[in-house]
Amino acid sequence: MFNPFYLYSSSILIVLGVYQLNWSNLFPKMSSGLLVFLVMTVILSAYLGFLSQKQLTKLVDNTGNNIPRNISSSKSNFSITSRLLWIITLLIWIGYIIEFFYVGKIPVIEYIIGRQYDYRTFGIPTFHVLIVTADAFFAVFLSFLFFKLKKIYLLIQYIICLIPSFLIYSRFLMLEIVLCSFFVFLVISKKIKWKSWVLVALCVFILLYGFGLIGNVRSENQTNQTKNPFDSSLIMEIGGATNSFKNLPISKSFFWSYIYIASPLANLQETVNKTKKVDYQAKGLIGFVNNNFVFDFISKRVNGILGIQDKNISQISPLLTAGTVYSKSFVYLKWVGLVLMFLFIIVVNMIILFILRKSVFLIPALAILDTIMIFNLFQNMLIYSGLSFQLIYPLIIQLFLKGRKLTVDGQTI
């Protein structure tokens, strides 16, 4: 069972291990201060995972892995029918269709016909956040229902909810939905045979290799070079590949994965090295809170209202922009900012798990928290509304249910 506290610790340790390979000349040497901080957070988070694991496992067993059983209708239950699920799916699609008419374009078609279009500008302000996050959360919930009830129409609805991420050309949206669904599967499955883990490891290996090949094609397409998916010379030049990596008897396409996994930590170290002054005045503190703890679609508007200029992190390269969940907090308050950010991560996880401890939405929420812990390696996903705002929906629905059990087609969940 994937405890988000354990996942935080393991993901940080993996990135630290990858960073120590020293395959890029661009990466600064890790300072003892940053290393001690990260190791301490790993230890503390692992300890919290140890304290919560038994109770969390018990809660998951009681809310998500019980055997479905037929029940009679009761006022104490809230019933969801397949018809209602189809209606929700239709409403989500209507929301996207409205956006397509508003923008006048479908991003994936623009890309196919070769027109320049920034998919990040797609959508109706604010409404886009609501429709995308509703789609993502609903898809994750459908995956939970499918793994639990094994009904094919749930899988069909899940696939239908994935299609918009392709149409708006949002690879991250598709990736986060699939990864959340994967965590749902792992939590529900509980015990997975070692052969399955070998298969997962093999899939990860293939994905990392494929990621490199796709990266080669895309980068050569942008520079109008001959498209050779096995030529990684461009990324090795951009990423400053060391001779030790060049001499390794492995495909150089793996350098893409190395750079994307380790460069955020390199940018964090670069930020630590180059941040000299911080603003402890009221406006600086407000800027820290607003730009590190508040949903991004809200914080941008608050910045404009209060005249706050968001701060940028230091980067080892203009092309490598990610900086982990911690970089921006360091820019604002240095080491105090890092400590407060770690506490924020812990508190958010605790609050969500506590509120939903007896909810049918515990497993989907747990999967979303796990996904946030993974993507926090790249940037602050707790304020990235495209992912973290999904957690608002189960909290609201749980208030509406008021302790009532949820039934789907006459079966308890």
TrEMBL record:
Keyword presence, Manganese: no
UniProt superkingdom: Bacteria
Keywords: Membrane, Transmembrane, Transmembrane helix
Segments passing through the bilayer: 6-22, 34-52, 84-103, 124-146, 152-185, 197-217, 335-356, 361-378, 384-401
Protein name: Oligosaccharide repeat unit polymerase
Organism of derivation: Sporolactobacillus shoreae
